[in-house]
Amino acid sequence: MAASGRVVSVNVARASEIEIAGRSVLTAIFKRAVADRRGVRTLGIEGDEQADPSVHGGPAKAVYAYPSEHYRFWQTVRAQAGVARWDEPLAPGALGENLTIEDVVETDVFVGDVLRFADCALAVSQPRLPCFKLNARMGFAHAAKLMVESAWCGWYLTVREPGTIAAGDAFDVVAGPREVSIWELFRARTGKRT
């Protein structure tokens, strides 16, 4: 076992129209935490939708996980941008993730690793690449750029074994081939060398 962690929150949203830069856009980035145990199926978590399956969703991007360790950074930059108070915490799901997790970050997981939960298994497939919808969700124009600069991107998961998941569930990271970490792949895809 390479690492272990815990689910802080399970987050879902239905796709809805919002206005971004004067145009109507369909998005499901505004995730909200759910208190109950949710089914995990081939295309994602029960009650969740992806608005644009060409870039989000599908079997390779069924579930998106994001480390809670990065939340303080996002709280700080939102306060610096003047879109939130300094003491205003971000609610789980604020980065559009389905699973807010703790104790595992981008340098800890590699493509092909499996997050083994008591009732399901999710395989690490690829990093999340931010888009303009992240800027709208975070409330300021440079959020996507900051995600690229920090490489605090989170990662997509494919459903290896369907089941259920809930906040508080523990998981182990079962090592796959360990050829490329999420951090390394994100850096390669965004052209960042360090």
How much helicity do the residues have? Answer: 10-25%
Oligomeric assembly: single chain
Largest sheet: 7 strands, mixed, barrel
**Overall mean pLDDT score?**
95
Q: Number of DSSP helices?
A: 4
The coarse silhouette is globular
Q: What is the fourth-level CATH superfamily? A: PK beta-barrel domain-like
Here the CATH topology equals M1 Pyruvate Kinase, Domain 3
Quick overview:
This protein has helices at residues 71-80, 132-138, 143-150, 182-190; strands spanning 3-12, 16-20, 23-27, 32-34, 38-41, 44-45, 63-67, 99-102, 114-117, 121-127, 155-161, 163-165, 170-174. By secondary structure, the chain is an alpha+beta fold. The protein has a single domain, classed as Beta Barrel (M1 Pyruvate Kinase, Domain 3).
Walk me through what this model shows:
- With about 190 residues, this protein is of the alpha+beta class.
- It has a single domain (about 5-190), classed as M1 Pyruvate Kinase, Domain 3 (Beta Barrel), CATH 2.40.33.20.
- Helices cover about 20% and strands about 35% of the residues.
- The chain contains 4 helices and 13 strands.
- It has helices at about 70-80, 130-140, 145-150, 180-190, and strands spanning about 5-10, 15-20, 25, 30-35, 40, 45, 65, 100, 115, 120-125, 155-160, 165, 170-175.
- A 7-stranded mixed barrel has the order 1-8-7-11-10-9-13. Strands 6-5-12 form a 3-stranded antiparallel beta sheet, with no helix packed on it.
- The protein starts with a strand and ends with a helix.
- The model has no long low-confidence stretch (mean pLDDT about 95).
